[in-house]
Amino acid sequence: LSTAIAITEQPVSASVPVGFSFTLRCRAQGRTSLQYQWFCQHQSDCRLIPGATNQDLPIVAEQTQLYTCRVNDLHRNAVFSDWVKVEVHQCVARGLPPRLWQGEPVIVLNPSEQRVEVGQPLQLQCAAMGVPAPSYQWYRNGNLLEQQKRKKLWIAHAKVSDSGTYLCCASNSHGEHWTNAVDVHIGEQSQPTSPHCLSPGKIALLVGNNRYQHHPNLVAPVRDVFELSHLLKHLGFQVVSLLD
What we know:
Elements: E1 5-9, E2 14-17, E3 21-25, E4 27-30, E5 35-42, E6 45-48, E7 56-60, E8 65-72, E9 78-80, E10 84-89, E11 106-109, E12 114-116, E13 122-125, E14 127-129, E15 135-140, E16 143-144, E17 152-155, E18 164-172, E19 175-178, E20 182-186, E21 203-208, H1 220-234, E22 238-243
Parallel strand pairs: 2-10, 12-20, 21-22
Antiparallel strand pairs: 1-4, 3-7, 5-6, 5-8, 8-9, 8-10, 11-14, 13-17, 15-16, 15-18, 18-19, 18-20
Domain Ig-like: 5-81, 105-185
Protein name: MALT1 protein
GO biological process, one term: proteolysis
């Protein structure tokens, strides 16, 4: 029976820059000695990787691919590991990732400000590198958006209530990192959100510092920036919000 083999450590997905070197790991236990064989899939083409017969698969990232490992014993029992995705970013700014990168999330694509008419689709996009691959969580005005847990935030039919300041948190087992905050305006394109928006000379710069060395992962600075930004806009200020 296939239950004669149990995978004790599954490989994990990764999101890395092109040319980055790292290792996928698979571990299993069985009643006899075990043999390993790795496979990869690019688009719909699944193929055996010649010579990849160890528990560890060294990879030099070239293109986004899926990987799985087959484990079999001497009685012809076989199991496959989970499929994992190695996402490869071809265009990454100089200096990213940091020289001593340990796999913590690094934002490589920030969302951009959007102006959308009511009823039209709203899409925001971000991306982060990380090992393991980061998970994503979007926020509007500091409030968690329960259904928005992907790189792309998608709302099929935008409502006025979808207006606000958006940002996304990318996190993995090494930590978390926030995208820039961006404003989303839903409504008639010709009407500014406030009659004060065009008044010159009233500009507020808000900076929320979240990455203190001895007080990691503070949430308050992010919420404070959102709330102050909202208040100052009602007072007629043009607001520039920065995080970290």
